[in-house]
Fold this sequence. Notes:
The protein is of the alpha+beta class.
Amino acid sequence: MVDIRQSSQYAKYLSQIGWIVERESSINYFIKKIPFLGCVIKIQRPEGIKIVKIKELCKKYRVFQVIIEPKTKLDAKYLNSLGYKLLKTPYLPTKTLYLDLTKSKNEITKQFKKDCINAITRNNDLEIKDYKFKDIETFRKGWKKVVKEKRHVPSIDELKALKKAFNNNVLFLGIKDKSKAISGGVFLKSNRIAYYWHGFSDQNARTLQAQYKIVWESICWAKTCGTKLFDFEGIYDPRFPNPKWMGFSHFKKSFGGEEKEFPGAFTKYFLPL
């Protein structure tokens, strides 16, 4: 299945937040201008590696670095043969979980671990709000309050651009009554795959285990929309160890699903022409 970063909606989103986007044969090429140096090209999970097109864009935009995150080991091997080097820190999650949504809800929940089922059941009466376009600023304020300066929170303009690009295929969910706890998530849908794009919870929400309910609501939304897979968008990968990922990886794994690995990010530097 085609990755969301190769969708026309994602291309529209990046073009709205300052990237140059070239799209050819259903492959997105994202170009960013770096003052005094030239440009960087980023190609994420493409269906194929089009070297001729990449060379053309390098010349057109005076590119000094190309970053490619391939889908397959075969594409990774091909990039190695062309002199591309594996980065120690990838840009996209290199390991994730896929939940099969073609099954019935009963079959899906049978994969859930006991702590997941208990948390959803315990929060059955917790009201979850679908934040619309006019509510995005309120949604972001809660998000920012939770993470403070520890993590990047997209700007209002970025979140509005995401909504404009994906329209009904993006979902902003959060606890309706935020007087005691703040928790939320951003979920995207493209090419019959739903993605757990962002998530956040304060200490009170973590005590309630509210995020289980929020993710469950998003899974129900995705299934109702006819998507085939729910992508948790990243779990801990020992090939690229990041201890901070271990906690939320435990949370995501409690929903079951099948693990999927990707090769990582490859880069090559050029002298701008």
